[in-house]
UniProtKB/TrEMBL annotation:
UniProt cross-references to CDD domains, sorted A to Z: ACS
GO MF term set: acetate-CoA ligase activity; AMP binding; ATP binding; propionate-CoA ligase activity
InterPro entries, sorted: Ac_CoA_lig, ACAS_N, AMP-bd_C, AMP-bd_C_sf, AMP-binding_CS, AMP-dep_synth/lig_dom, ANL_N_sf
Family from the record: Belongs to the ATP-dependent AMP-binding enzyme family.
Catalysed transformations (reactions): acetate + ATP + CoA = acetyl-CoA + AMP + diphosphate; propanoate + ATP + CoA = propanoyl-CoA + AMP + diphosphate
Ranges of residues in domain AMP-binding enzyme C-terminal: 554-632
Annotated keywords: ATP-binding, Ligase, Lipid metabolism, Nucleotide-binding
Keyword presence, Lipid metabolism: yes
Name of this chain's protein: Acetyl-coenzyme A synthetase
Domain AMP-dependent synthetase/ligase as annotated: residue spans: 101-499
Segments crossing the lipid bilayer: none
Gene label: acss2l
Subunit structure: Monomer. Interacts with TFEB. Interacts with the 'Thr-172' phosphorylated form of PRKAA2. Interacts with CREBBP.
Length: 671
């Protein structure tokens, strides 16, 4: 990597940020980066020394095999050490650092009238009580607990309570359908499920307990019910939105269901942490897989702690008096790493927001930044594009002068959105950290450091400490200098996933088989002449809608469950706000009629099977799909039809080229 000399417009770190930053300039980044690769042992020992270890590591800091031709893939960090991540993110601050009364979270509800402040002391006490409740329900070290909660403090309490007693949490985003929840409960074989009665998302009331009961019923139908107890937070009721017109019917099974508040009432405030091996599992988080079945990405205790803590500290240049806000949902990895573990490990004060950006008005984000004097703000390009639509006026009503650093995650950020974020939100003075990473990577892997890295809009810039990227061509050859190809990593860092839960083979096949010796991200990238990395998007059959990855296979499987559908193929089409959206081709069974009602029915079906975030934007009738002679659907052509790109290139491998003309003539213009 070289110091940039290119023609691209560069944005340099502001002087005041550089004065006392953790990584104050490019040379300091380069020196630490070099050390992290040349002497990882010393580098990670130093990072580990800030944390509490019940027992120190006995072997080397990092051991691994990344080459499938040499045996099983494994990564081990600090083998032999014993610790507890909950102790490190809570007790350590309360006991050793006097952060007793420091605010851990400002919880801000869906309605601006609902808000609560939670200090580190209060957080520790709630977590311990919840840990005791879980224990009373029979949860032991190694057991799985599924969590299906909205963005409320109990979500943080529950995940940390699991970590405290050594249970493995499996959080399922509370926008997923009962089918998706059921599938994830069955895979994890959880014994306890934690949920809430209901929640408002914007204007819409969602009956979570009803969805949970449907999911449990489906588990029972598959003879796979592992859940013994369901702990239910009285959330909708306590927010007093439950007036006569919007009261929820909360279905109740008194053998299984327990109200959270009743269980917590007499639970003790003390709970000795379970001392865990460094490599014990911490959590499972499901992410879409290209076969359609979600993968349970497994992260382990010590490596994840160190990696999320260090990335948070450096990438957001954490200061003791910061108020940090990440707008993600904890149901995704961004929330796990950068709402819960990373910020708490640093003793940070965060905003925990239940609502959506445009409720009750389009200035809600800016209002919250003003209200809490937010200094570091982390959101997704899709949210930025949504808010851009309303222009600058909603921003001008609020004081955003507290902001120092802005961040984005989830998908490549387009130049217009970057400029708007920088000018309208950051008022031209805040660096934007465009953080590239994945559920699998645990934390940021390509990212600017705000005081050190000159920015190029749209580039995730350089690797974080300990991360060694490479760009490969189709044949697996490493490309030097300026290049475009597959983004891979040559060695692990502490926060990398350890396996796919109960499916090591799938882990190896998905990430390590294609190019032996490398972890394959599934993303394409370009490295420019200054050594900057630019993510060019997924190269597998995955689609990124509003920053959420979904597999085309999963959506196709849902569509073909409809009795009228014979076959389907799903591709992406660019979307102004969501980045990409779903464009579906369906071939109907003989005698079936394509109609508006059918389109609506199919949209509803996909919503119900997977969740509202996967609602297709376009559904086109496809009398036939373009296939190769061997019967493989040519998605490239479907993508071009969806995007109205006329130059289709070589169609000679198609069994019947006429199919394409028909599809073109019937393409959907508007959703
Ligand atoms: C995409 C989210 C470009 C990428 C943390 C990756 C990005 C997938 C960026 C992982 C970024 C994430 N620039 N693309 N800054 N961040 N992606 O597992 O395709 O939900 O592989 O993790 O999102 O999505 P996941």
């Amino acid at each position: 990597m070289v110091v940039p000399e290119s023609q691209d417009k560069m944005y340099y770190p502001p002087d005041d940020l550089q004065r006392d930053a953790h990584v104050p300039d490019l040379n300091s980044y380069l020196a630490q980066y070099r050390k992290s690769l040349e002497n990882p042992e010393a580098f990670w020992k130093e990072v580990a020394s800030e944390f509490f270890w019940k027992k120190p590591a006995t072997g080397p800091m990092l051991q691994y095999n990344f080459d499938v031709t040499k045996g099983n893939i494994y990564v081990k960090f600090m083998e032999g050490a014993k610790t507890n991540i909950c102790y490190n993110v809570l007790d350590r601050h309360v006991r050793e650092k006097d952060l007793y009364e420091k605010v851990a979270y400002y919880w801000e509800g869906n309605s601006p009238d609902h808000h609560v402040t939670i200090t580190y002391r209060q957080l520790l006490s709630q977590v311990c009580r919840c840990a005791n409740v879980l224990k009373r329900m029979g949860v032991k070290k190694g057991d799985r607990v599924s969590i299906y909660l909205p963005m409320i403090p109990e979500l943080v309490y529950t995940m940390l309570a699991c970590a405290r007693i050594g249970a493995v949490h499996s959080i399922v985003f509370a926008g997923f359908s009962s089918d998706s929840l059921c599938e994830r409960i069955i895979d994890a074989q959880s014994s306890v499920l934690v949920t809430a009665d209901g929640v408002y998302r914007g204007e819409k009331l969602i009956n979570l307990k009803l969805i949970v009961d449907e999911a449990l019923e489906k588990c029972r139908e598959k003879a796979s019910s592992s859940i013994n107890k369901c702990l239910v937070v009285r959330h909708h009721l306590r927010t007093k939105s439950g007036t006569a017109s919007n009261k929820l019917q909360t279905p109740w099974d008194s053998d299984c269901d327990v109200w959270w508040d009743e269980a917590m009432k007499d639970a003790p405030e003390e709970c000795e942490p379970e001392w865990m091996d460094a490599e014990d599992p911490l959590f499972i988080l499901y992410t879409s897989g290209s076969t359609g079945k979600p993968k349970g990405v497994l992260h382990s205790v010590a490596g994840y702690l160190l990696y999320t803590a260090l990335t948070f500290k450096c990438v957001f240049d954490h200061r003791h008096d910061d108020v940090y806000w990440c707008t993600a949902d904890i149901g995704w990895i961004t929330g796990h790493s950068y709402i819960t573990y990373g910020p708490l490990a640093n003793g940070a004060t965060s905003v925990l927001f239940e609502g959506i950006p445009i409720h009750p008005h389009v200035g809600r984000f800016w209002e919250i930044i003003q209200k809490y004097r937010v200094t570091k703000f982390y959101t997704a390009p899709t949210a930025i594009r949504l808010l851009m639509k309303y222009g600058r006026e909603p921003l001008q009503k609020y004081d955003l002068s507290s902001l120092r650093i802005l961040g984005t995650v989830g998908e490549p950020i387009n130049p217009e959105a970057w400029q708007w974020y920088h000018e309208a939100v950051g008022q031209g003075r805040c660096p934007i950290v465009d953080t590239f990473w994945q559920t699998e990577t645990g934390g940021h892997v390509l990212t600017p450091l705000p005081a050190a890295t000159p920015l190029k809009p749209g580039s995730a810039t350089f690797p974080f400490f300990g991360v060694e990227p490479s760009v490969l061509n189709e044949h697996g050859e490493e490309l030097e200098g300026e290049a475009e190809g597959y983004l891979v990593f040559r060695r692990p860092w502490p926060g990398l996933m350890r396996t796919v839960y109960r499916d090591q083979e799938r882990f190896e096949n998905t990430y390590f088989k294609k190019f032996p010796g490398f972890y394959v991200t599934g993303d394409g990238c370009r490295r420019d002449k200054d050594g900057y990395y630019w993510i060019t998007g997924r190269i597998d059959d995955m689609i990124n809608v509003s920053g959420h990855l979904m597999s085309t296979a999963e959506v196709e499987a849902a569509l073909t469950q409809h009795p009228a559908v014979a076959e389907s193929a799903v591709v992406s089409r660019p979307h102004k706000v969501k980045g990409e959206c779903l464009y579906c081709f369906v071939t109907l069974k003989d005698g079936m009629e394509f109609s508006h009602a059918l389109v609506q029915g199919l949209k509803t079906l996909v919503r119900e099977k997977i969740g509202p975030i996967t609602t297709p934007d376009f559904i086109q009738n496809a009398p036939a799909l373009p296939k190769t002679r061997s019967g493989k659907i040519m998605r490239r052509i479907l993508r071009q039809i969806a995007r109205n790109e006329n130059d289709l290139g070589d169609l000679s491998t198609l069994a019947d080229p006429k199919v394409v003309e028909v599809l073109f003539s019937q393409r959907c213009e508007a959703a």
